[in-house]
Amino acid sequence: MYLSKEKKEEIFAKHGKGANDTGSAEGQIALFTYRINHLTEHLKKNRKDFNSERSLVKMVGKRRALLDYLTKKDIMRYRAIVKELGLRK
User: Could you tell me which CATH number the domain at 5-13+24-85 has?
Assistant: First the structure.
């Protein structure tokens, strides 16, 4: 999946500290969430695409690690990003 520069900047501007702030945990979590949602839809149509399935599992693990880091670092930022992205029900 190719993600355009404009779309990445939009995601980072909305969830990070700015369009060029690609290092913030919130921005990275938002980007992983966007890519995870896209891959999930792809895998619903292409069930035997095991390479994409592996990529999806790895991305979910990376997002989980970032969320764990944010929990330890600043619980308020964690709660804000989880609520914003709707990760917990």
Answer: 1.10.287.10
Domain boundaries, the chain: 5-13+24-85
Q: pTM to 2 decimals?
A: 0.91
Q: CA-to-CA distance for 9 and 33, rounded, in angstroms?
A: 15
List pLDDT tens digits, range 33-77.
999 999 999 999 999 999 999 999 999 999 999 999 999 999 999
For residue 33, which of 52, 10, 56 has the smallest C-alpha distance? Answer: 56
Alpha-carbon distance of 26 to 70, in angstroms, equals 8
